[in-house]
Design a protein that fits this description.
heterodimer, A: 198 residues, alpha+beta, B: 213 residues, 12 helices, 76% helix
């Protein structure tokens, strides 16, 4: 198939013609080393990798798909994995999460609740409460305009919820416009939100 | 190209194996927010023991995480969880085995607000086929405003018996809240607003016939 007149072939042949002749002893040593290497059993991880490489394309594709779904599931677990976690506002809800919410009975179906607070000197504000596991990373609040109030929307089930605002990642502040939660369990102020049935 | 696919597959496989423990329990993953190892171990064991006893675990995890948010020490978190678990078990006994976790948690909050156990049981008897999470929440809030638990529970029961919905009771609570902020006494506000809601409800005869249907 390859024509000898091909310029590349001619150049390669010219370059190889200048190489020294091979020694028979050296060739034997190389062959013995290769044979010894073949006789030694491969470690487990190398065998597993080799077996993976030998599998058919469809099996590989299935494995890849499974691994990819696990990885995607891992990163999306906050929105899909746990229904209760996914009710926190501020995070995008995926189709399955929305479907699971839609299938719930009205009396336990989470509803969006807007929260806002005026904290002029705050650099960051997040709403934390029993609806988002008191986790400040779940529902960060956005400032309305340059110096306006902070606002966010949370998804909470109908009923009574306690919450507070995490200011600059360190201080918890109660909502001045909501009733205080009467709790002697911990020092600090929390507020109460009553969520009505949709 | 095939090398690229091969190595991508290997990387994905390793990532999948590394992430597998996360699927064991989202609740477990949330406990990682508790930085102190001893506290986290205590919470994990406590929650597991509660699960074995059939107590709803979500309110316990939430209370522990609330303690972390409020920078409470381990002893405080332990005390809060132990007290809550006791109330949750009592609440479950009062509301029955079919009560949902949210309902049981709402009952536990009502108990914490000193609502008599018998009142919670009577409220559930008025609505045995549905959740009374909102009703219990409103009751807890009315008591928190300074209304005696007995008076508040009687009023809520009366409204429930006439067919008041959870939404109507939530509005009642909001209206009482506004009145109290304007300086009206909580009991007077409840009386006034309670009558307002009652006027919107169907007469007792039609409620009874509707229930029979």
């Amino acid at each position: 198939m390859i024509e000898e007149s091909d310029e590349l072939i001619v150049r390669a042949a010219r370059a190889l013609s200048g190489m020294p002749p091979t020694k028979a002893g050296a060739v034997a040593r190389v062959l013995m080393a290769v044979r010894a290497n073949q006789a030694r059993p491969l470690p487990f991880w190398k065998r597993a990798m080799r077996r993976f490489d030998e599998t058919s394309v469809s099996a590989k594709a299935a494995g890849l798909l499974m691994a990819a779904s696990l990885v995607i599931g891992f990163f999306a677990r906050g929105t899909v994995g746990n229904a209760r976690d996914s009710f926190a506002g501020g995070s995008e809800l995926s189709g399955p999460a929305l479907q699971s919410i839609a299938n719930m009975p009205a009396e336990s179906r989470p509803v969006p609740v807007a929260v806002a607070v005026e904290l002029a000197n705050a650099k960051t504000v997040a709403v934390v409460g029993d609806f988002n596991g008191w986790d400040p990373s779940v529902t960060p609040m956005q400032r309305v305009g340059k110096d306006g109030p902070w606002s966010a929307t949370v998804l909470a089930k109908p009923g009574r919820h306690t919450y507070a605002f995490m200011v600059d990642g360190a201080t918890l502040v109660a909502d001045p416009r909501a009733p205080r939660a009467k709790s002697s369990d911990f020092d600090g102020d929390a507020s109460v939100m009553m969520v009505r049935t949709p | 190209m095939s090398n690229f696919i091969r190595w991508t597959a290997r990387l994905l496989g390793v990532a999948a194996i590394a992430s597998a423990p996360q699927f064991v329990g989202a609740q477990e993953a949330r406990l990682l927010a508790i930085r102190d190892d001893a506290t986290r171990d205590f919470v994990r064991q406590f929650v597991e023991a509660a699960r074995v006893r059939g107590t709803p675990t979500e309110p316990l995890v939430s209370r522990a995480l609330e303690g972390v948010a409020f920078k409470a020490d381990r002893k405080r978190i332990e005390q809060a969880m132990a007290a809550l678990e006791k109330r949750l078990r009592r609440s479950r006994d009062l509301l029955g085995a079919k009560a949902t976790a949210d309902e049981v948690a709402a009952g536990a909050d009502a108990l914490a607000a000193d609502v008599p156990a018998g009142m919670i049981q009577e409220m559930k008897k008025l609505a045995p086929q549905r959740q009374i999470t909102v009703e219990l929440g409103v009751l807890t809030e009315l008591v928190a405003k300074g209304i005696s638990p007995k008076v508040a529970a009687e009023r809520i029961k009366e409204l429930m018996a006439r067919g008041a919905t959870g939404a109507q009771l939530t509005e009642l609570n909001a209206a009482v809240q506004q009145d109290v902020a304007l300086g009206i006494k909580p009991v007077a506000a409840l009386e006034l607003r309670g009558r307002g809601v009652m006027s919107l409800l169907p007469p007792p005869a039609s409620v009874n016939s509707a229930q029979r249907r």
